[in-house]
Design a protein that fits this description.
two-stranded antiparallel sheet; 263 residues; single chain; 21% strand; Rossmann fold; 7-stranded mixed sheet
Length: 263
């Protein structure tokens, strides 16, 4: 069986994890619908995958800078907290899904170095479907001196069909990426498959704002300000308009928790 609990809430960002147990819970649900959504637009699954790929290809070079501008730098605190919750033990093998530019991976490795010293036994695999995002991450790793070690690997792969064997990883993280997957349930099922028994899955994602006053402010900032920031900083209004719409279309906390339980 699986145990699901909310582990952290800060502002409008919800982090939650499930701990995988020795036996599977309910059978996996497969989404057979022929239509999905790209922001507020109804599209086929194939169209969504292509459109999302184009979005992140376009924003890759400015992705980290835009995260700072959009969140006022607060995303750094959320990601630090994610690593605090992970609390990696020696020899932890982490899979960071949709981790292209390496923000989570580098935080993990810094924590590992603090814990394990100069010869760490832990490692991370960064998996992303978008080669442009991975290229940015690899360049950052080169600048930080990580690409000369076996501590980090970069893999092009689809979160709905992971190129890894069963029971491969001690932990999986995905930060602000799962809402861009065509079939979220397939991504969760695949994550469960490649986790070792007792492994941990941590997802950092925006979700529904329940406070009505905060919601009105958040909606105004999201729909009126963020796309404009995207245009000014990255020269790309449409991509950031999609990212805002994708947050609105993402399941609320209760429904997402149920999806994790069903994986």
């Amino acid at each position: 069986m699986q145990h699901v609990r909310r582990c952290f809430v800060v502002g409008i960002a919800t982090k939650r994890f499930f701990s995988r147990r020795l036996c599977h819970g309910s059978s996996a649900k497969i989404n057979d619908e022929q239509k999905t959504h790209f922001g507020f637009e109804e599209v086929t699954p194939e169209q969504k995958q292509e459109k999302v790929y184009t979005v992140f290809k376009n924003v890759a070079q400015k992705y980290d800078v835009m995260n700072d501008f959009m969140s006022g730098g607060i995303h750094r605190l959320w990601k630090d907290r994610l690593i605090d919750v992970l609390d990696p033990l020696p020899s932890t093998k982490l899979l960071d899904l949709a981790g292209g530019t390496g923000d989570i991976a580098f935080r993990f490795l810094e924590r590992v170095k603090e814990r394990e010293g100069r010869n760490p036994t832990s490692s991370v695999v960064v998996c992303d479907i978008n080669e442009e995002m991975l290229r940015v991450g690899e360049q950052r790793a080169e600048n930080l001196g990580y690409n000369r070690s076996n501590l980090i690997k970069w893999v092009t792969g689809d979160a709905q069909n992971l190129p890894f064997p069963d029971n491969e990883f001690d932990a999986i993280t995905i930060a602000f990426g799962i809402r861009n997957v065509v079939d979220i349930q397939k991504c969760l099922n695949e994550s469960y498959r490649v986790l070792k028994p007792g492994g941990m899955f941590l997802c950092l994602e925006f979700s529904a704002v329940t406070n009505p006053i905060l919601k009105s402010v958040y909606d105004w900032y999201s729909f009126q300000v963020i796309p404009v920031i995207g245009e000014v900083i990255a020269g790309d209004y449409k991509s950031y308009k999609y990212l805002v719409e994708s947050i609105r279309r993402f399941p609320d906390q209760k429904d997402f928790k149920a999806m994790i339980t069903d994986s």
